[in-house]
Amino acid sequence: MDLKIVAVITIFLSFHAEAGGLSYNFYDQSCPQLENIVRVQVQYVSLTDPTTPSALLRLMFHDCQVQGCDASILLDGTKHSEMASSKNFGIRKRDFINFIKSTVEEVCPEQVSCADILVMSAREAVAFSGGPRIDVPLGRRDSWNPPNFTLADVLLPPADIGVDGMLQLLTKKGLSVQESVAILGAHTLGITHCLNLENRAGNSINPGFENTLRLKCPVGSPASKISFVQNDVTSILFDNQYFVNSMNGRGVLKIDAQMPLDSRTRPFVEKFGNDEKAFFQAFSSAFVKLSSSNVLTGNQGVIRRSCNGLMY
Questions:
Q1: pLDDT per residue as tens digits for the range 195-216
Q2: What's the CA angle centered on 14, arms 13 and 20, to 5 degrees?
Q3: Which residues are catalytic, by number?
Q4: What is the pTM of this model?
């Protein structure tokens, strides 16, 4: 076969494979202003509310964990919505994603999915906080199925998940052990409510820290839903302090405390605690894999005009 014909066929197949899935230039023609709109909005709100980046990052993870990144966590309107799951306690900034969507709709009507806006907002949140700027492929479509809180109950990890459960959960998404440890570095941002520490196992590395947690979060306290502890001393900066704390026995959640004790995860906790650049690289890879797993593309799903309703 003529080499020119082979080249044309290769380009044709490559284009259609990319067009039916995710790509790094998906909106270059249909909405070239998109990246700047999302970046400006996230930066502005993060300046006025420094807790915004941690909220956006957690919002994305909770959406992606339930049937892929499809913006189903943003849907309202029924008592069965994903937000009815107790595992979505403390989720915030859903309305902010809807606000960005309304801004995008004015410029690029019915072109950009809420799912992509949510992923891009989380990406910008990481970068704004001092973390890596992650190049993410786009082209996700939104779910049109009514959300179900029972699915969220099953698929979202419990607050007391251990290393075995964490690895099982994330390797199903295609993450390696190193990437699984890295993605938990997202805990470097934000706080942990005392409610999520009630079933936390002991941490023999640092009994003094255990006592501090018990004092701040006494078991059975009626204030457990509003009281909290900072994840680390730089809780508004995306850095490797989470891993430094974990190595020193100051991991807040059960998984944070267990990882430096497990032979499978300890080498990566130590690596990231000593080398922030290595953490950023592994986190970026994990972020792309998680946000690209089991997504709706092409003719699947819809483009919602409103992120919190089934309008499309």
A1: 888 777 655 567 778 878 888 8
A2: 90
A3: 62
A4: 0.88
